[in-house]
Write a structure and sequence with these properties.
The complex is a heterodimer.
Chain A (H helix, E strand, L loop, with lengths): L1 H14 L6 E14 L14 E13 L2 E10 L14 E13 L2 E8 L1 E3 L5 E3 L1 E2 L4 E2 L2 E11 L2 E12 L2 E2 L3 E10 L9 E13 L11 E13 L2 E17 L2 E21 L2 E11 L46 E2 L4 E2 L1 E12 L5 H4 L3 E11 L2 E3 L5 E3 L7 E13 L4 E13 H5 L8 E14 L5 E10 L7 E9 L4 E9 L8 E11 L2 E10 L2 E5 L2 E5 L2 E11 L1
Antiparallel strand pairs in A: 1-2, 1-35, 2-3, 3-4, 4-5, 5-10, 6-7, 8-9, 10-11, 11-12, 11-13, 13-14, 14-15, 15-16, 16-17, 17-18, 18-21, 19-20, 21-22, 22-25, 23-24, 25-26, 26-27, 27-28, 28-29, 29-30, 30-31, 31-32, 32-35, 33-34
Chain B lengths: L1 H11 L13 E4 L4 E3 L9 E7 L4 H20 L2 E7 L6 H11 L4 E4 L4 H5 L7 E6 L2 E7 L5 H13 L1
Parallel strand pairs in B: 3-4, 4-5
Antiparallel strand pairs in B: 1-2, 1-5, 3-6, 6-7
The chains are: A mainly beta, B alpha/beta.
């Protein structure tokens, strides 16, 4: 660490006297909350009522060399709902040194990477979710020509400010076959990856020390059609759930995803089918199912429409790739599909005159039908008729009535298993059926001012029953806005208002936002990965600056 | 921590103009070909860069709004808009369907593991840039109705 930093400083120092074209860039992000007791919400502020996550990134580039550091601080504690191993820590959490020369691209230090669609391997950072599972080690990319790309990785995965106890080795190859096979009318590429984890098994010889997963994929574009398939198998491994070894019996895992798309100007359709059986891969075998999404190697997000409004975000799906065998529930994974449709009406038509654009999505996710036996073995169907976890149909209609006024109408009809939405065993607690309507209008005044209003309603007889919500935002200019919002659970026993108000100011590369109000407890989902946040009340301050 | 301070002090003593330099990363096209961000604005080409995602409502509003004027503006100013999707594998398959379904005529690029987004220090999207010869001339985060006119005014300044 010290040596690396000294080297970086030295290089910067030496280069500053030379004429090499060099750049320094980076960013600062600071997210803080000040919590307060709220008896109506039943929220008692924790001991550290002020909590703050801060990230400072600094990069230096000179010719083919790039180097950088990321400093992180979670003082005195991380924001509510983040992994507790971050609390009261501040350090240079990661650093890297990269050099590109000829066909090669080498990174030493901490790095991110994704193979294929990420099913087999994804090292990434998402600050909202508290995920940073970068690998510390060495990454070597080799691109001998424009058709072939090879990647090799060796290292350990980051876990908070520590490293996970295993060694990860991975290789990936992507090959574009167009030139090789002299294809002209279609576009074809293939790829394959291998990810292996070596973890000490001194506690028991029954536990495999080395577990690997292998994937293959094909991507095809033919005219207006696209077809992609990726399949992964994972070696047999013990069964662990949330830090505990459940069974020394070994279970293998599989994943398959197929995507089919068709699009022409004005119309786009895409369908995805995915089946995940016991498909979780972590850099620590005991990290399986941890609620903070730490130490994950595989990436299996929920494949559903990602919603953005207050009330459409209450009943969201979270993928269920786990094998679970206990007295409460037995399940082996999930299977399902989703289809998207996008359509813009032609200009000549009546709908086209008002620039009508439609986006519709249907998704259905269920358990893989499985039979479990007394010796903790099981049989599965490829799809079968397992318990339904989630079904969603939603449609969004956008109109531009004139150059000042736009509207968006969203209708959602969702069924979600209570276990998925609220916790507890899946498939035995019944469903929540909800219908949601959202109307949004945006009006642009003269001289850069505009306002946006959203009215929403959620109907359900289950859980906390009906909700109504309202958001109003006024933009004084492109850089300054204020908003007020309220989500009112008027059908629930407590008739709780989740009010919020605040504003943001942005200028060039600085953005500052401040808001005060109540946070609804539940899942915060970004990119299909969810983080649980408890209910709270207080101030939030976010600052971003990049240079 | 010591090093951190040292670096900061060291940096303060430099005269490196950083704010304006556009990142240099490799992105993919919808056909899986690779393209460097450097090439987008080389040789005096004007590139508008818009970081977006299929799940980002304000991003789509912005791109919808600009698409109303895209042809008209391009008759007047020689520029291209690169709509760079930060969608990850959860939603990446939607990109092509959505772009065509919306009838957008932008150049579409993919930043699947957010390498570009990270190097621009963009924690939130949409992020809109005007870039020429790898220098960032204009930068705006977020979208509110009417921001597209500000973009147009900035573009017009470049041809005067």
């Amino acid at each position: 660490m010290k040596i690396l930093l000294n080297t970086i400083i030295l290089i910067i120092y030496v280069n500053s006297f030379s004429q090499i074209n060099e750049t320094i860039y980076g960013s600062l992000e600071s997210n803080s909350q000040f919590l307060q007791d709220d008896s109506n919400l039943g929220f008692n502020s924790p001991e550290d009522s002020f909590r703050s996550n801060n990230y400072f990134q600094l990069n230096y580039r000179s010719g083919n060399i790039t180097a950088g550091i990321q400093y992180e601080s979670y003082l005195p504690s991380a924001l509510l709902g983040y992994s507790p191993n971050l609390n009261n820590n501040n350090k240079i959490a990661s650093y890297y040194f990269n050099v590109k020369k000829g066909f090669s691209d080498i990174t030493v230090g901490y790095f991110y990477e994704q193979f294929g669609n990420g099913l087999i391997f994804r090292a990434w950072e998402n600050r909202q979710l508290g995920i940073n599972n970068a690998i510390k080690g060495i990454k070597f990319k080799y691109k001998p020509n424009s058709n072939v790309k090879l990647t090799g990785i060796y290292g350990q995965q980051r876990n908070g400010f520590e490293l996970s106890g295993s060694t990860i080795q991975a290789i990936n190859a992507d090959i574009n076959l167009n030139e090789i096979l002299n294809l002209s009318s279609i576009d074809l590429s293939i790829g394959s990856s291998l990810v292996s984890r070596y973890q000490d098994n001194s506690v028991s010889n029954d536990i495999p020390s080395s577990v690997k997963s292998i994937s293959g994929r094909i991507n095809l574009i033919a005219g207006n059609f696209t077809f992609d398939i990726e399949a992964v198998t994972k070696d047999s491994d013990i069964l662990a759930n949330e830090g505990e070894l459940i069974s020394n019996k070994l279970y293998d895992g599989t994943a398959i995803q197929i995507d089919l798309g068709y699009s022409i100007k004005g119309l786009g359709i895409n369908s995805s089918l995915r089946r995940l059986e016991n498909f979780n891969f972590y850099s620590n075998r005991l990290a399986e199912g941890n609620i903070y999404n730490q130490q994950s190697l595989s990436y299996t997000p929920a494949l559903t429409k990602q919603q953005d409004y207050l009330l459409t975000n209450i009943y969201v799906y979270n993928s269920q790739p786990r094998l679970v065998i206990n007295s409460l529930e037995k399940r082996s994974g999930e299977v399902g599909s989703q289809t998207d449709l996008y359509y813009s009406f032609k200009k000549e038509t009546l709908f086209g005159k008002y620039k009508t654009k439609i986006a519709a999505n249907f998704s259905y996710w269920a358990a893989i039908e499985s039979n479990f036996y007394e010796d903790e073995s099981y049989d599965v169907e490829f799809i079968g008729h397992g318990n339904r976890y989630f079904r969603d149909f939603n449609i969004e209609i956008k109109n531009r009535w004139n150059n000042k006024f736009n509207t968006a109408i969203t209708i959602v009809d969702v069924i979600i298993d209570k276990g998925v939405a609220l916790g507890g065993p899946l498939g035995v607690q019944g469903d929540i059926n909800a219908k949601i309507g959202v109307i949004e209008g945006t009006y642009r005044y003269e001289n850069g001012k505009s306002s946006r209003t959203v009215i929403q309603h959620l109907w359900t007889k289950e859980d906390k029953r009906n909700w109504a919500a309202f958001v109003h935002e006024y933009n004084f200019s492109s850089s300054f806005n204020l908003f007020i919002a309220d989500g009112w659970n008027y059908g629930g026993e407590d008739k709780t208002h989740y009010y919020n108000f605040g504003g943001s100011y942005s200028k060039n590369s600085t953005r500052l936002s401040l808001n005060y109000g109540r946070q609804r407890g539940g899942l915060i989902c970004v990119g299909g990965v969810c983080r649980f946040v408890p209910e709270s009340n207080g101030f939030n301050l976010n600052l971003n600056y990049s240079f | 921590m010591k090093h951190f301070l040292l670096i900061t002090i060291l940096l303060a003593s430099f005269n490196i103009n950083s704010q304006n330099t556009f990142a240099d990363v490799t992105l993919k096209t919808l056909n899986g070909n690779e393209i460097t961000t450097k090439s987008l604005s080389s040789n005096d080409k004007i590139a508008v860069i818009s970081l977006w995602a299929t799940w980002c409502v304000p991003c789509i509003k912005e791109l919808d709004a600009i698409s109303e004027f895209y042809d008209e503006w391009r008759d007047e100013i020689d520029f291209k808009l690169y709509a760079i999707s930060t969608d990850d594998s959860r939603t990446i398959k939607r990109v092509k369907a959505m772009v065509n379904g919306k009838g957008w005529e932008y150049e579409i690029l993919l930043d699947t593991n957010q390498e570009l987004q990270r190097s621009l220090g963009a924690s939130t999207i949409p992020l809109t840039l005007i870039v020429k010869n790898n220098k960032i001339i204009y930068r705006h985060t977020g979208y509110s109705s009417g921001v597209e006119y500000e973009l147009y005014d900035e573009l017009k300044k470049l041809i005067k």
